[in-house]
Specification:
8-stranded parallel β-barrel, binds sodium ion, 8 strands, alpha/beta, Pyrv/PenolPyrv_kinase-like_dom, magnesium ion binding, binds 3-methyl-2-oxobutanoic acid, TIM Barrel, 12 helices, about 260 residues
Length: about 260
């Protein structure tokens, strides 16, 4: 049971081993996830919604993510720790470098950022400076003001082609992993086939190389928002928090989650 490394992620994809990822914000849950064999932990800026009670991720600061990353790092030894660059912390390469340095100092092994376009330059800038980067495409919650809400992305042919093109571009720019959020199953499958780096889906169908869920969603905690289709309450079948995490890991590895009812056709 050695700790995960960045190169081991691409090995897992090549071997067809599904990657199990959950968001986490503190040491206690991190310990439980480590013990349950979760491969990757994401200190997501979703903390702004599930912990801080905001109705978007936009108010989250670098200090906030640093704080939670430090907490999670105390509890997790084996999982690879990924931390989100919050809104506008990646607006320029220099800002992204400063914020990423702090996230790595807090215990992260990889930073995640949303989008392509001008972010390609940011990805290259970080990767050239030895900072592993996870990209995030499809529904990018930091785009909520432009999008006007949280909706499935890449539904029509031209939108799908754009996401597919962006996915190739972030991989080309040096991203080591790609989160695909709320895109049709067929699009996520095509992108997964295009790339050598692993794709991690959330509302992106069963054919991604791994799956991620927000901890609170896994535990059936009501956010006050409408529950998205891709969410499953694993506490109901797991019987305990540790059981819920184990049930999720098992369901991802056996391909039972996500089912058609959790995906977009
Ligand atoms: O912040 C977060 O929780 C995320 C996941 C939904 C991928 O970015
Ligand atoms: Na996020």
């Amino acid at each position: 049971d050695k700790p995960w490394t960045v190169p081991a992620l691409a090995d897992a994809k090549r071997d067809g081993r599904k990657l199990v990822m959950l968001t986490c914000y503190d040491a206690g849950f991190a310990r439980t996830m480590d013990a349950a064999g979760v491969d990757l932990i994401l200190v997501g800026d979703s903390l702004g919604m599930v912990s801080q009670g905001h109705d978007s991720t936009l108010p989250v600061t670098v200090d906030d993510v640093v704080y939670h990353t430090r907490c999670v790092a105390k509890g997790a030894r084996r999982p690879l720790l990924v931390a989100d660059l919050p809104f506008l912390a990646d607006a320029t390469p220099e800002r992204a470098l400063d914020a990423s340095m702090r996230l790595l100092q807090a215990g992260a092994a990889m930073v995640k950022l949303e989008g392509a376009g001008h972010k390609l330059e940011v990805i290259r800038f970080l990767v050239e400076r030895e900072i592993p980067v996870c990209a995030h495409l499809g529904l990018t919650p930091q785009s909520v003001l432009r999008l006007g809400g949280y909706k499935v992305q890449g539904r029509d042919d031209s939108a799908a082609a754009k996401v597919r093109e962006d996915a190739r571009a972030v991989a080309e720019a040096g991203a080591a992993m790609l989160v695909l959020e709320c895109v049709p199953t067929a699009l996520a499958a095509a992108i997964t086939g295009d790339l050598a780096i692993p794709t991690i889906g959330i509302g992106a169908g069963p054919q991604c190389d791994g799956q991620v869920l927000v901890l609170h969603d896994l535990l059936g905690l009501n956010s006050g928002h409408r529950r998205p289709k891709f969410v499953k309450d694993f506490l109901a079948e797991g019987g305990s928090i540790a059981g819920a995490v184990q049930a999720f890991a098992e369901a991802v590895r056996t391909g039972q989650f996500p089912a058609a009812e959790h995906s977009y056709a």
